[in-house]
Automatic annotation (TrEMBL):
Record EC number: 2.6.1.1
GO molecular function terms attached to this record: transaminase activity
Cofactor: pyridoxal 5'-phosphate
Protein name: aspartate transaminase
Similarity annotation: Belongs to the class-I pyridoxal-phosphate-dependent aminotransferase family.
Keywords assigned by UniProt, alphabetized: Aminotransferase, Pyridoxal phosphate, Transferase
Transmembrane segments: none
Organism: Tateyamaria armeniaca
InterPro entries per the UniProt record, alphabetical: Aminotransferase_I/II_large, AspAT/PAT-like, PyrdxlP-dep_Trfase, PyrdxlP-dep_Trfase_major
A Pfam family this chain is assigned to: Aminotran_1_2
Record lineage: Bacteria, Pseudomonadati, Pseudomonadota, Alphaproteobacteria, Rhodobacterales
SUPFAM superfamilies: PLP-dependent transferases (SSF53383)
Length: 390
C-alpha cells in the first residue's frame, strides 16, 4: 500500500539534519565514550520540587482526560506571564496548551496555511521547521541570513520572498545561532508582515535565556497582535523537556478554532503535567534565571577560549543555550569538520549545514555539559581547527 506524500516527503527527499547526532549515539551504544555537544538538553534534570508537585497531582487523581485547551489554571498562568513580560493583555482565551513547542509550531502552521500555500522561514533554522511546514501540506520557502550580519534577517530579503506567501516563521533568541533579534530587525519584519498580509509565527521558547540585548516579542509591536502566533514551552525555561508541555498564543478566534483542531489531533496534555507546570511557572523569573545561569556562565568560558586563538570565530552569542562557531578558516565544510572531530576526538557537535545553507562552514555547539568538561572540549575543538587551518 502506498503511503501519503505528506509523511514520505517531510524531509524534502534529503537528510533530516540529525545524521551526526545519530552517529554519535551509535558510538556511545558501542561503548565508545563521546562528549556530546549536540542537542539542547539541560545537563541538570527537572527540579525536584516540580517533580514532587507532579507526583502529588498524579497521586491525587489528576490522571484522567484533561480539558483539551488546557486547564484554566495553566492557561491563566501562561497568560499572566505573557502579559507581565510583553505588556500585551493576554487572557486564557488567547492560550492553547500543547504537548510541547513542536506541537504548537504544527498547530500554528495548520491555522495559518492551506495546502499549497507558501510558508516562509529564516535560514539558519531549527531542524524541524521545513518538515513542520510540509506536514500541513504547505510549501516551505527559506530566507537566508548572513554570518556578517550575525544572522539578523534583513527585511528587504523577507519582502523579496513574500509574494504569494501566507506565513513567516521566526525564532528569537535563535536556535541554532544564539542571535537575539534587535528591535530594528523585528520592526522591519512586522512591516513586511503588514504589507504582505502574512501571519507571523514567533518561536520564543528561549525567551528566558537572553545574555545580551533584550527579548522583544513581535506580538507587542503595533498592530501585530491580530496576526501573530507565539510558541512557548516549559522545556527550555524550566528544564522540563520530557514533560512535553508548551503553548500557543494567538488571537481569540484563532485559538477557538485551534481548540477544535487539538480535539482531533493531540487531545490535550496530561493533567498532572499541567499542574506541575502551574507550580513551576509560579516560581517566577528568578527560577527561570537559575535554570539559564549555566549557559550564561559557559558563554563566558567560550568567549575566553575562542578569544585566545584566531582560527575559530564566534558569532555573537546573545541568547539560548548554543554557540555558532565559524570554522571556514579550515577550508572544511561543517559536515566534514564535525565528522572528523567525532572520529578523531570523540566530540560531537552539530554541523551548520544541519540548519540550512546559510550556516555552511559553521558548527552549532550546545553548552549542555559541566563547565570544566565544556571548556576542555571547546579547547580541543579549537586546537583541532588550528591544525587544519588553510
Amino acid at each position: 500500500m502506498a503511503l501519503s506524500q505528506r509523511i514520505t516527503t517531510l524531509t524534502g527527499g534529503g537528510s533530516d539534519g540529525w545524521d551526526l547526532f545519530l552517529k554519535a549515539r551509535a558510538m556511545i551504544a558501542d561503548g565508545i565514550p563521546v562528549t556530546e555537544l549536540t542537542i539542547g538538553e539541560h545537563d541538570i534534570r527537572t527540579a525536584a520540587p516540580i517533580l514532587q508537585d507532579m507526583h502529588r497531582s498524579a497521586m491525587g487523581g489528576h490522571t484522567g482526560y484533561a480539558m483539551v485547551p488546557g486547564t484554566d489554571a495553566l492557561r491563566d498562568q501562561v497568560a499572566r506571564r505573557t502579559t507581565e513580560r510583553t505588556g500585551v493583555k493576554t487572557t486564557r482565551d488567547n492560550v492553547l496548551i500543547t504537548p510541547g513547542g513542536q506541537s504548537a509550531l504544527f498547530a500554528a502552521h495548520a491555522a495559518a496555511c492551506d495546502p499549497g500555500d507558501v510558508a516562509l522561514y529564516i535560514d539558519p533554522y531549527y531542524a524541524t521547521y521545513p518538515g513542520t511546514i510540509r506536514g500541513v501540506s504547505a510549501i516551505p520557502r527559506s530566507i537566508q541570513t548572513r554570518a556578517e550580519d550575525a544572522f539578523q534577517p534583513r527585511a528587504t530579503d523577507i519582502a523579496a520572498a513574500a509574494e504569494g506567501a501566507r506565513s513567516l516563521l521566526i525564532n528569537s533568541p535563535n536556535n541554532p545561532t544564539g542571535t537575539v533579534y534587535s528591535r530594528a530587525t523585528l520592526e522591519g519584519i512586522a512591516q513586511v508582515c503588514t504589507d504582505n498580509d502574512l501571519w507571523l509565527i514567533s518561536d520564543e521558547v528561549y525567551d528566558s535565556q537572553v545574555w545580551e540585548g533584550e527579548h522583544i516579542s513581535p506580538r507587542a509591536l503595533p498592530h501585530m497582535a491580530e496576526r501573530t502566533f507565539v510558541v512557548g514551552s516549559m522545556s527550555k525555561s524550566h528544564a522540563m523537556t520530557g514533560s512535553r508541555c508548551g503553548w500557543l498564543i494567538g488571537p481569540e478566534e484563532a485559538i477557538a478554532n485551534l481548540i477544535t483542531f487539538a480535539t482531533h489531533t493531540t487531545y490535550g496534555v496530561p493533567g498532572f503535567v499541567q499542574d506541575a507546570s502551574v507550580f513551576a511557572l509560579s516560581q517566577g523569573a528568578p527560577f527561570e534565571a537559575e535554570i539559564g545561569a549555566p549557559f550564561a556562565r559557559r558563554r563566558a568560558i567560550a568567549q575566553r577560549v575562542i578569544g585566545a586563538q584566531n582560527t575559530v570565530g564566534l558569532i555573537p552569542a546573545q541568547g539560548a543555550m548554543y554557540l555558532m562557531l565559524d570554522i571556514r578558516a579550515t577550508g572544511m565544510s561543517g559536515d566534514d569538520f564535525a565528522d572528523a572531530l567525532l572520529e578523531a576526538e570523540h566530540i560531537a557537535v552539530m554541523p551548520g549545514e544541519s540548519f540550512g545553507a546559510a550556516a555552511a562552514g559553521h558548527l552549532r555547539v550546545a553548552m549542555t555539559i559541566e563547565d570544566q568538561a565544556f571548556e576542555a572540549a571547546l579547547t580541543t575543538l579549537c586546537r583541532f581547527a588550528e591544525a587544519r587551518a588553510t
